[in-house]
Amino acid sequence: MDLLTELLTTDFRDLDRKALDLYLATVAQVTPDALALPTPCADWTVNGLLRHQVSQDEGFAAAVRGDGARLRNWRNGDLGTDPHAAAVTSADLVTKAFSEVSLDQELILPEVGEGGGFPASLAISFHLVDLVVHAWDVAAAIHVPWEPADDLVAASLKVAGIVPTDPGSRGPGLSFDRAVPSPDGAAPADRLLTLLGRTPTWS
Question: Is 45 helix (H, G, I), strand (E, B) or coil?
């Protein structure tokens, strides 16, 4: 079975919930004074990254409702006065949406690709890998451990394997930066980070 077929025929919902738990546990450690810290995503502070993920959760939920084409549904996340509570609320929203979707339903994801939609099975895998890697972004910014379970790393590596690598798809301001060289024998979690443009030693 080729990689894309495997991803299209896998139900990632349980792993996505596990990735949300990893992400939320990291966000719970963010203190108010840490919100202004830089992150490995050059365009975002911690506050900006948390707001981005809330927006993404809301966007995926909107896509399940058939309203994914409106960019404002992907850009209006609000952290309010309690970023962790906002993250929990958006996580619950997207989990409920994914629980109700048919895996072959087409979801419009304008921030992933223009034009046609993506089967929900693949869209959920995109959400999963975002959570796992953004959990690292937050953890690196606030200097706390990032310890994703092996099954999360393995699934995320498969998804990372289909992310386009051409210059038009990678770089500053795009979903992922250009891949970073990974040394021979690197741990799977570090290989995941480098595949998606992160430097594991960032600080």
Answer: strand
- Please, are residues 128 and 155 in contact by the beta-carbon 8 Å criterion? yes
- Ranges of each domain in the chain: 3-168
Q: What is the DSSP letter of 118?
A: E
Whether the Cβ atoms of residue 122 and residue 13 lie closer than 8 Å to each other: no
HSE-CB for 73 with a 13 A CA cutoff: 19
The pTM (predicted TM-score) of the whole model is 0.94
105-156: pLDDT as tens digits: 999 999 877 656 999 999 999 999 999 999 999 999 999 999 999 999 999 9
Rounded to the nearest angstrom, the gap between the alpha carbon of residue 68 and the centroid of all alpha carbons in its chain is 17
Cα angle 188, 41, 173 (rounded to 5 degrees) comes to 115
Which residue, chain included where needed, has tokens 């999963």?
Answer: 128
Q: State the Cα–Cα distance between residues 157 and 122, nearest whole angstrom.
A: 14
CATH T-level assignment (fold) for domain 3-168: Four Helix Bundle (Hemerythrin (Met), subunit A) (1.20.120)
**CA–CA gap between residue 38 and residue 35 (Å, rounded):** 8
